[in-house]
Amino acid sequence: MTLLYFAWVREQIGCDAEEIALPSDVRTVAALLDWLRSRGGGYASALKDLSVIRVAVNQEFAAPDHAVGDGDEIALFPPVTGGAPS
Amino acid sequence: MTLLYFAWVREQIGCDAEEIALPSDVRTVAALLDWLRSRGGGYASALKDLSVIRVAVNQEFAAPDHAVGDGDEIALFPPVTGGAPS
Amino acid sequence: MIRVQREDFDIGAEIEALSGGNNEVGAVASFVGITRADAGEGAPITAMTLEHYPAMTEKQLAAIEAEACERWNLTASLIVHRHGRLEPGDRIVLVVTAASHRRAALDACAFLIDWLKTKAPFWKREETAEGPRWVAARAADDQAAERWRDAS
Amino acid sequence: MIRVQREDFDIGAEIEALSGGNNEVGAVASFVGITRADAGEGAPITAMTLEHYPAMTEKQLAAIEAEACERWNLTASLIVHRHGRLEPGDRIVLVVTAASHRRAALDACAFLIDWLKTKAPFWKREETAEGPRWVAARAADDQAAERWRDAS
Fold this sequence. Notes:
The complex is a heterotetramer, with two copies of chain A and two copies of chain C. In chain A, 26% of the residues lie in helices and 21% in strands. By secondary structure, chain A is α+β, with helices and mostly antiparallel strands. Chain A has one domain (2-77): Ubiquitin-like (UB roll) (Roll), CATH 3.10.20. The longest helix of chain A is centred in the middle third of the chain and has 9 residues, at 29-37. Chain C has a single domain, classed as Molybdopterin biosynthesis MoaE subunit (Aldehyde Oxidoreductase, domain 3), CATH 3.90.1170. Chains C and D meet through α1, β2 and α3 of C and α1, β2 and α3 of D. β2 of chain C pairs antiparallel with β2 (27-34) of chain D, so a sheet runs across the interface.
């Protein structure tokens, strides 16, 4: 599985992308976030408040119960702030 | 008084501007239109349906009861069709 | 700023001149009206002549622009309106509005175009294969301008 | 057509390329977003970096544009969005919509800008004299995009 991180999630985790082998019991977005958080360090601090974390699975926004699998590209990032001016 | 004509009003009357000496009993836009119509010819045909005639006195839209006087610039024209596309 | 002219205009240059160098500007909306062959009710038009009443046009456009600038607190605005003979594909009118925020720029631009369409003293004479015709005013356009009154 | 790029864009050339030579186009609306020094909540910004997720940005912008083209029956449309580091006065985004009629062009342009503001996966990092900060999403922007849902 490819994991991508953007904005301050990227900064806190300390890298912009990584390949991971998913534990067999991690089958949803919510379980993936829990598992990443359990790695501690930057993961724990970046993911401590999930209300400001958005997840995309294969470039589409995904809810916590969305399935995840080994071939997926999963991105974690803060709510988007857009480019158009206010 | 200066009279200006635009669009098909101009074409039917046959000129784009003229100077006239106003009869002393013509004191409103409505009276002016009646008086012009009484001249017959192009005036009568251009002004036969007043629902499609608009009048400006000194570059401002004017209602039938608006006063008119010797120093005024009075324009007669059809409802505007604007420039912006529909 | 308003200009009524026979000549065409350069959209990019006009927008740049209006918004460049002003750090308060965050949003520039613009609108360009273009002559369409199928603009009329009947046969395709081959050309269109816009007649106007220069003294009144200048007065009214200046008043419309001042109203928009005040209502939406615009940083800058521009109306360029052409008159004379235009062929399909030719630009007719340009409205540019600059503001700090996008909503003000977009709403002011739409307001000005609706207003120009109904209130500016222009008359259109279309040329077609069936001969020339003067365009009649349309009630739908008055309604589009009136909705701005309701919203205020 | 969509483009996400570091480079600046030429508004006049983009509008001309989109609308020129198409006799169905009667109305071209455009919007340009520009970086403002006072765009933030606190100290004036000296620069702003737009980060994005290229694969997702392309997918989402293409979907947004397709939705607008269908809903307003646009003749053509263009979104150019910059990423990377921008300073006050720099252009950020261009939206151009071309249609037969003015209402379609204006509404589609406003819709696309509201949508880009809230839904496109861009993140803004502002630089100020007090240090850099990531911009937080604002509820008001979500409401501006949502009103298009209510209107449909």
